[in-house]
Amino acid sequence: MKLPDFTDFEPFNNLREQMGAELWALDETFNEQLHISLSEKALLTSDYMAVSLDQLSRDVDYRLRYKNANVVLIDENIFHLAACQNVLKKQGIQKVSWEVTNEMVCMQCLHQMNFDGVNLQKSRRQVHNQTVFDNFNLQKYWQNYPNFPLKSHYIALKTD
Ligand SMILES: [Zn+2]
Fold first, then answer.
1. What's the pTM?
2. Is the N-terminal amide bond of 149 cis, ω within 30° of 0?
């Protein structure tokens, strides 16, 4: 039996556009190389995952990714949102999660992403930078930048 190709079906495409849905989401089947599994999702939500640095990648705006999810990398007292200069210096196994406990956001990451205009190179932004840093809340951040599922497009963390 020949199935109709719904990607050429106009009403379907219009509906998809209205929904803002990407085509890949409809036909991409689960691939453990690219997609986080349910158990990985559970770990990211309730605890953390130990991954090697080369399993991580980043988005165009430097946000850290593990497969098709944005994650934070938990350091000693801070957590990283982005592939900042400190993350790029790291080696070996790292903790990634969607949750943090007492760690503070990394200021270099805010700078790297130009998050809410944070720019450490402009001294007149010092007060503004500090305000953004003080008010940063990871839960709120995920609400504004949903961490999952992301499109398959991503960039290698280290390009060498
Ligand atoms: Zn950082």
1. 0.79
2. yes
